[in-house]
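Good morning N.,

You mentioned wanting to compare the apo and holo forms, so I went ahead and generated the holo version with zinc ion. This is what I fed in:
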Amino acid sequence: MHETSIALSILAAVEEVFNETPGAKRVSKIKLRIGMLSLIDVEALSFALKVASRGTPAENAEIEYTIDPPVFRCNRCGHTWSISEEELQRLVEKYGLQSAMHLHPDIITRFFKCPRCGSTDIEIEKGRGVIIESVEIETENE
Ligand SMILES: [Zn+2]
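and this is what came out, ligand included:
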């Protein structure tokens, strides 16, 4: 389950912030942005974070998730664009997948053309990974 290793790297980064904060007591909130094409199951990640944070400063931290829509870039003309959730949903249904989380990034680029120049040489610029947007730390002075 790759959510566990993702959870561990998130917690390692959060702990680094914690260790650099003077008077840090506990992590109160973690804001995450999950790319729609990251192949991450948010429920599984949430569970993995809960288990992996036990006994760490991030135990019981509130975790907020934002799902980021994908952004594509054309390698020929440099145009960047995003697709709507509806378009993504249509693909999901067309290929009989459970959700957009199961659309493999390497496959999805085959289904799109650059809307400006028509090139099929496109790549995913955003929407594949997990970004830690912010970490809130409770300190002794609060
Ligand atoms: Zn183009």
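The chain has a mean pLDDT of 88.

Happy to go through it together on a call whenever suits you.

Best,
F.
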